[in-house]
Every structure is written in structure tokens, then in C-alpha cells.
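Example 3.2
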Amino acid sequence: MYDDKTTIDLMQKNINSLKKGSLRFWGDWFGRPMDNYHIIVYVQFVESDNTLILKFNEGESLIVLDPVNIKFNSSEFYIRSASKIRWEWFSYGQPRNIQNLYYREYVKQDRSIIVVSGKGELEYLGKKTIAAVGQHAIEVC
């Protein structure tokens, strides 16, 4: 269980001051480095599932299972570790519907991360393994 409720409360209270920018998941950039700009607009913690949910300005969602060591302010935002991350986004410039919904799941296994990508409800797009040594689970750059 994530035991620092104060951190979550402070994130919610200071949501407009959270760092904005490009995203990296265990060193794996979403898009090209520094080529996009994400703004957190909603923070929720579901204690029963030990899950942090972040919503972003373009309808994206970040679901973080078992977050560990969250650090944030206006100049940095990272989560040191997690057991699983799911990033969901709609194809930019397209209608926000299930046909245009993409996802990337990062599952921690020992010192590696299994990354599964997909589209919509059923379309599987790919799988890869990345090394996680020394990388934050999530980082806003």
C-alpha cells in the first residue's frame, strides 16, 4: 500500500503547479524526446487497489499500480518505481473513440520491463523488453 496520503493530497491541491512536459516510462520516451507537452489535470488514488490515476489535458490517462517514491514540484515530477503502468491516449487529431484509443503497458519483472502496445479493445500492436536499471518508472521531462 502507498502509505503517504499527504503526497497525494498535496498533488491534488497543487495540480496547477505540477511539472508539465514530455513523458518517459522507465527511460522509454512517449514520442520523440521533448516533442510533446503533457499537463496533469486530475489526480486520484484508489487505496483499495493501491492505484494512482492521472488524467491529462488531451484526454490521456496514466494508471500506476503500486507507486513508490513520488516526487513532484513545478520543476520535476517522477515516480521512482511501480509494478505496472498503463498509458492510454487517443490518436491526436482524431475523434476520441475506442477505434482511436491506443495504450502502452509497462510491467515490471525483476530488473526488466515488459512493454505491450495495443489499439482499441483488441488490436495487439507489439511487445518488447527494456532494461529498467537506474530509470524512474515515470518521469515528466
